[in-house]
Design goal:
Number of strands: 0
Structural class: mainly alpha
Largest sheet: none
Distance between the termini: 23 Å
Order of helices and strands: HHHHHHHHHHHHHHHHHH
Shape: globular
Length: about 400
């Protein structure tokens, strides 16, 4: 049985589901179920097991999830714990289904990535149009910035910036590899850059710039880029930075970042963001349970209880750590954060990993610093799907 086409259409369904996840869940759920059923009915389980054993990357992802499952032994708030385990189930299942078999051809993988990039352009254009309609109705320019620009995935500019950054790199990769319709891909890339600036996710301002510079330097050293192209690329990056600095709504976010850095360093008490409190007190509660953590159901409760004891002026029970490394350490202990670092860093030391996979990991490494991105469906599914898909790309050229 040729399972490749079933895997392919299931993946396309998941990519569509990333766009519609907040208002139409059938493509996302259906795609994951289709991948699972295809994996089951393709049999050859012994070969699949051998493939898993030979590859530490899927094992690290699956073990990361199993640590969360084991933490239910000592967690007290079991209802919260089971909900979190259900949310994170794709971190176990998708690597199992996608990394234990040859899955699909490299060419098909690139087609999936192209569809993803195109859908992100559609989402960016649609969000801008919807924000314009909001502006026409209310006359408030905030409709174009931060949460005001997130209509398809409401209130989650950090996650949308993650999506757009990856889609932008996929677009640029195809442009630089000399494929057809460069002009259209270029227009789409410009749209994504504009949206990335307007979303004002400071973590992805940094993530995109750092990964972009590292990628350009590596490409230039390998003679993939000419000096002329290098100049144009740096000009584009300069315009990106100028856009961030010159727009009042985005420059204000940069000033807030300066104050937060000073607060963390102890040179200022001008807190402009709850993350300063969250990170400082997260470190304190981690020090009390560094080995096993508090369990997947009690980590947030431990943080909120600290706020109550110390009279921190936060209310409600919805706070998380706004840092995936701190979140994982508090939930499942030091082994959890070590596994997280392993799965993100190990591919950089392996030969033959595709640049797009390393770019995804670079964006994720930095994005995890200011957001607990595996605490929401938008982050869990994107990470659990893109990681195995991109890890299957090897070599330098598209087939």
């Amino acid at each position: 049985m040729d399972t490749s086409k079933y895997y392919f259409f299931a993946c396309i369904s998941i990519v569509i589901g990333l766009l519609t996840q907040d208002f139409f869940k059938i493509p996302l759920t259906g795609g994951m179920i289709a991948i699972g059923l295809t994996w089951i009915f393709s049999f050859s389980f012994r070969d699949k097991l051998k493939n898993l054993i030979r590859n530490p990357l899927p094992l690290s992802l699956m073990l990361f999830y199993l640590l969360h499952l084991l933490s239910m032994i000592y967690t007290e708030n079991t209802s919260v714990g089971w909900n979190d385990l259900l949310l994170k189930s794709s971190i176990f299942l998708l690597p199992l289904f996608m990394m234990s078999t040859s899955f699909i051809s490299r060419q098909k993988s690139f087609q999936i990535l192209k569809v993803f990039a195109l859908l992100m352009m559609v989402m960016a254009a649609s969000d801008l149009v919807l924000s314009f309609l909001d502006y026409r109705e209310r006359g408030n320019s905030d409709a174009f910035f931060y949460v005001g620009l997130t209509h398809f995935i409401p209130g989650q500019p950090h996650y949308v910036s993650w999506y757009y950054s990856m889609a932008l790199f996929i677009s640029l990769y195809h442009i630089l590899n000399g494929y057809n319709k460069k002009f259209l891909w270029g227009l789409g890339s410009l749209l994504l850059i504009i949206s990335l600036v307007l979303l004002t996710s400071r973590a992805f301002y940094i993530a995109f710039s750092v990964v972009f510079l590292a990628s350009v330097i590596k490409a230039f050293k390998s003679s993939f880029l000419s000096k002329q192209n290098l100049g144009l690329i740096f000009l584009g990056l300069g315009l990106f930075v100028i856009g961030i600095i010159s727009i009042p709504n985005t420059s204000k976010r940069i000033n807030d970042t300066k104050n937060e850095v000073k607060s963390l360093m102890g040179t200022s008490t001008k807190y402009t963001n709850p993350r300063i409190y969250l990170w400082k007190h997260a470190a304190e509660i981690i020090a009390e349970e560094p080995l096993l953590g508090y369990g997947v159901g009690d980590a947030k409760k431990a943080l909120i209880n600290t706020f109550k004891v110390k009279n921190i002026p936060f209310s409600g029970n919805k706070w998380n750590f706004h840092n995936q490394y701190l979140q994982s350490w508090t939930e499942v202990g030091i082994l959890g954060v070590l596994l997280l670092m392993f799965m993100l860093l190990r591919p950089f030391f392996e030969k033959g990993q595709h640049p797009l996979f390393l770019i995804f990991l670079g964006l994720t490494l930095i994005g995890f610093i200011t957001e607990s991105m595996l605490e929401r469906q938008a982050g869990v599914v994107f990470f659990a799907f893109m990681y195995p898909l991109l890890s299957g790309l090897r070599g330098k050229e598209v087939e």
